[in-house]
């Protein structure tokens, strides 16, 4: 299937103590690949709301957005141009649970373990490596950069 669209994505590093939650999605283009909870921003949806919704849908957790590692642009493996807004968040409620139809597995990784993940284990290796480097090195920015 040929796709040539522009896709807006909200992505979130969910933090708990010194650990980060990664998930493996159950999609043909992402099966057995680690990713941060993330998904498309729906038409008319605010970026922050999309980020909170995606985390809740994919993990069962309620989070509070704390900061951002930035905005990333890349060509996806489905030939879409993706503009990804990535946030850092902490857990404020909910219970970790996964829909087996959408998520194969979830795992808490210590921050220092993230850099050891192999590129072929990541959904979109180029952009995820950039995000992981920013998370590991504490390169974050205030979310006040975003305006409604």
Automatic annotation (TrEMBL):
PROSITE patterns: NUDIX, NUDIX_BOX. It holds the Pfam family NUDIX. The keyword Hydrolase applies. The keyword Ubl conjugation does not apply. Residues 5-131 form the Nudix hydrolase domain. Its cofactor is Mg(2+). Keywords: Hydrolase. Belongs to the Nudix hydrolase family. This is 8-oxo-dGTP pyrophosphatase MutT (NUDIX family). It comes from Shouchella xiaoxiensis.
